[in-house]
């Protein structure tokens, strides 16, 4: 691990850059959109191992071993996040994290998620008590941390530069290892983009909505509601404006600020972390002899999933260890078709039993 170039200064890119720089590498992080003090581009999701229906979907698509591997990686990522939060003295608040829905078609999938979480070693609490201004279906309940994401990102950036790292708006002339850590990977479309769904989460920080936990809503208007340390609530939605999403549920709130965050979801639930060639333009700009890696498919959960990916890539770079799972670089056409039809049914409210279709299990590389 000598010269490392990372495209993307989000939590995944900066965390990996900091670790590599401290390990003795010469690291350049390339990003044109970093504005210290601004939340633009960041998702305010809590630090938690519970993220919607993640374990249920990973188990369905990839099998029990992959679900256990994800659980191990996220547990370690939460510890890594706690370590950075303590190192930078960033204020963080422990808080319950709940996954919920007000859509009856989706409600029973929460029980499947709860069972999947138990099979990988977690003990979610299943509760029928509504704790929102509107009725919701039962949810598995976990714990997590809420943190000012802007403050944490700025501390990561400062620590990276203080360690000798370079933040640049231009690609360096060459690098021994090149890593795409952008929401939409700098990669050849046929290899990875068929596994990703590009979305933009719209966020608003509001007053007037009091919550005792963070909420992840999984119905048609998927949203995240995350209490902040100052008594406000960060409300994010990937389908509409956050205030419109609240108003549709009879909730009024005064807005403090707005911002957007570009994200990519993995169509088969498992984030893409592994080897991949960069695009021709990026390759010509950085030299031909290099190892190319990619970290993508985190959705709005980059603060946890991104740190888990950073740990996997750092372990690979420092020890040569392979990645714990082998993501498919090109999804089978039949799988793409089922995914598109499943998303269409869901959007048109036609038999919205599952957000994702059932697909053949992929081979995983995992041992406990």
UniProtKB/TrEMBL annotation:
Q: Name one GO molecular function term.
A: oxidoreductase activity
Domain named FAD-dependent oxidoreductase 2 FAD-binding is located at 3-50
Q: Which residues cross the membrane?
A: none
Alphabetically ordered keywords of this record: Flavoprotein, Oxidoreductase
Q: Which residues form a coiled coil?
A: none
Protein name, entry field: FAD binding domain-containing protein
Q: Tell whether Oxidoreductase is among the UniProt keywords.
A: yes
Kindly indicate whether the keyword Oxidoreductase belongs to this entry: yes
